[in-house]
Write a structure and sequence with these properties.
The structure is a homodimer. Chain A is of the alpha+beta class. Chain A has a single domain (8-103, 115-135), classed as 2-Layer Sandwich (HIT family, subunit A). The first copy, chain A, is 32% helix and 22% strand. Chain A has a five-stranded antiparallel beta sheet with strand order 1-2-3-5-4. Chain A is globular. The mean pLDDT of chain A is 97. Chains A and B meet through helix 2 and strand 4 of A and helix 2 and strand 4 of B. Strand 4 (78-83) of chain A pairs antiparallel with strand 4 of chain B.
Chain lengths: 136, 136
Amino acid sequence: MQPFALDERLARDSSLVIKLGLCELRLIEDRRWPWLVLVPQRPGISEVFELTPLDQAVLTFEQNLVASGLKTLTHATKINVAAIGNVVRQLHVHVIARFEGDPNWPGPVWGHGAAEAYTDDERREIKKKLLEAIHS
Amino acid sequence: MQPFALDERLARDSSLVIKLGLCELRLIEDRRWPWLVLVPQRPGISEVFELTPLDQAVLTFEQNLVASGLKTLTHATKINVAAIGNVVRQLHVHVIARFEGDPNWPGPVWGHGAAEAYTDDERREIKKKLLEAIHS
């Protein structure tokens, strides 16, 4: 089987925060919401249930580590966690901090309006704080 | 702590398929998409990471059992799995069969148009087939 290679659209729309045991943790380039994706570094996988049972368990651990860290960091009203993949088929799990009154609240973020880029300082700062929140 | 009681809106919008080890598996009353929700029978929980580690692992197992069964049954293009909860805060995980060309494809199902009720025969039939797919 071919080695894992990140989907081109995911690569374009996000940047690496850190490589965890299973997943690449990436920040979506859209400052409207603190929005992360976890991408299991396994080739040819579209659905969570296609992962081995061990990888499924590790994905659950990494999802909850990241979701919990994002909640601690942002004090979000609600964390949204979702594996959708109707457009990009490479398995990726969204972890998004949502706030009452944020763009499209309480509706979903996908397909809503146009992404707004971070400044370099903002992007660096949110990644630094994320790593602190996840490691604490 | 108070015992588990199903959220009123979830109760109104869906009907029981089966009680699994952790979750109530329920069918959303909207025939536009084969759409299930898993509701962990634990009181006072809004986020997956608030569950105990064991419950998190069981939820993962039940999610993948149901998602895999739904894929086998429907031959869906993609299964969408999501814990959103911006409106109904009781933890519930959506498991939805999506097809190219279905209503709002490839966008998300939440907040799109008005639900369409099943006939009694349709509802009975899909639940029966779901149980067969999950148990096989």
